[in-house]
What we know:
The protein is of the alpha+beta class. It has 5 helices and 4 strands; from the N terminus they run ββαααααββ.
Amino acid sequence: MKCSRCGIGMGEEDAYELEGERVCEDCFLDAQMPQHPCDPLAQSVADRFGRISPDELLEEQREVYEFIKERGKVTPAEILNRFGMREGDLRQIFIVLRRLKLVKGQKIDGEICYVPYEYQGQGGE
Ligand SMILES: [Zn+2]
């Protein structure tokens, strides 16, 4: 199955219920974790990820990020083909990049694509 927010593939057991949608852990955490300065846990998670800059990404994470930036938008399948990685690997990378607010999932022409986080194209929410 796929996350109804970012469209990433996930196992049934990894799905979370969010406002009637079945979403991945990342989208779930994302929704649970808007900026709550008075919530120490949420804040420490945000701080931990907030301190990482693109320069400090793992080689593989950085390459995927560069690929998405370069193309503007790519489908998960294109990334899997380009890097020859498994969907599970891409999911882990995407979660990190998503939490760093470097990339996001976006539905474009009915197809889920990964785009730079600042992407302001059609189909915005
Ligand atoms: Zn998701």
